[in-house]
């Protein structure tokens, strides 16, 4: 299945492109003055430590449970799961991150804590964005932020629907895009792109297969 | 049916959620279905209404009928192959979707489109914003009972689609931009066509306004209908014209400029009451502002290449990026995680329609059933984007 080829180590065969050209331009891509004859480092920019009064404040409060970095000019906190409702609430109440742009997750099946959960926040007053991310294990739950931002309601339902991550304290946690009786969470990496809940299709659509 | 039982949601509402001392009708609560096959839900949206007579006590949206798994598809395509798919989300503003996606990947790869490409992008995106607002106006007015605007707006939208067709061969799902710039140079006569369109459409917008702005039926159906405050908009994550009509002067083109928007002079129209009528006025004013932007762009369009230095095989370095643009419906964001391969590890689309639709429940409580139609229209949703 196609998603088997997604392990980060070997570059999957680029579809529709000739192989020989695959390595070289990628190395030349990131920076224009990249003239050095050492194509050994194809990586582009790396995350840098993010320093600001905001970070100092949270670091003094939470210490090692929190890591602040910046990548391509975008700032993010990587925090311990135990900090989760508190730091989000503080960001909204004390630092005016009053607009929760998005909540989403990323699945890394090879990691011990399989999921990254991300909150993408924006502050109207500061015109600033920040991402908060945390790692949780498969089957673990995470506190809901609906009481902090009502917009989290549907966003968390979508994360639950697509990844199977449960949010404690959500007022009405159920599937949102897929039908209620569906089995499986399609955005997990172990869910194939052609996979379907055949049983649901047979019972509800009255056909042998949706393919 | 469980409507939002969340306390903070009720606390915030400025609508009186309690039943009045004297109910409209002495009747039991009634639960009815609106949609998914209903001409006024703008696609396959199902709304479960809890009613007391004609009065709406609460709603619940059932969505997902158009779910195609766009984010899953992205993980199984290369970056360039996924580009046409984004057009199929908000299909009435396909150019905006493509702009957001291309810029997000460019940011991740640390490349920039050349100035000429940026200008072409701005011209086409703003044309698309006008087309999107025209389609919204025609269908929204039709839902409320005004039939003529539909014919007017579709007639004029046709001129925009003709420009798209001449530029890239497609009218609706244009796939106009590529990662790193534009695929096509402007055709001979492009600038003339755009300028002709500008002079042609400005009086037409006045014409739409002549039909509606002081029309008594229009006023009755839209004034004080679906009121939402700026604070509620922010709490619910609502963006775009709905947010601006509630008095929050915020537009990503100004707040965090992308493409070439910082070079143009334009204003952000805002409303005061946050009702359906103000949202109508804001969108009408936005069309005029878009005309201003297009005029400046087409007059100042620089010469030069239209494609940046992008490798044949697009392979962004390991990392993640969030980039968002002001789509006609609100903040359209792309969150992309790259594992260094030719395929994105994860793409998350932050759809404005999906988030804005969540405000429907708060906006229609206490109104009549017929107002639900008006409010669905005024939020301006496209179900292809809600469900993805």
Report on the structure:
- The complex is a heterodimer of chains A (about 210) and B (about 400).
- With about 210 residues, chain A is α/β, with parallel strands linked by helices.
- Helices cover about 20% and strands about 20% of the residues of chain A.
- Chain A has five helices and eight strands, in the order αβαββαββββαβα.
- In chain A, the strands form two sheets. Chain A has a six-stranded mixed β-sheet.
- The two termini of chain A are about 15 Å apart.
- The relative contact order of chain A is 0.10.
- Residues about 1-40 of chain A have low confidence and may be disordered.
- By secondary structure, chain B is an alpha+beta fold.
- Chain B has helices at about 5-10, 70-75, 80-85, 95-110, 115-145, 150-170, 190-210, 215-220, 230-235, 240-245, 250-255, 275-300, 350-355, 360-365, 370-380, 385; strands spanning about 30-35, 45-50, 55-60, 175-180, 180, 320-325, 330-340, 345-350.
- In chain B, helix 3 runs antiparallel to helix 4, helix 4 runs antiparallel to helix 5 (about 115-145) and helix 5 (about 115-145) runs antiparallel to helix 15.
- The two termini of chain B are about 25 Å apart.
- At the A-B interface, helix 1, strand 4 and helix 4 of A face helix 1, helix 2, helix 4, strand 6 and strand 7 of B.
Strand order of the largest sheet of chain A: 1-2-3-6-5-4
Major sheet of chain A, described briefly?
A: 6 strands, mixed
One letter per element, helices H and strands E, the order of chain A comes to HEHEEHEEEEHEH
Mean pLDDT of chain A: 78
**Which residues of chain A form runs of ≥5 with pLDDT under 50?**
1-41
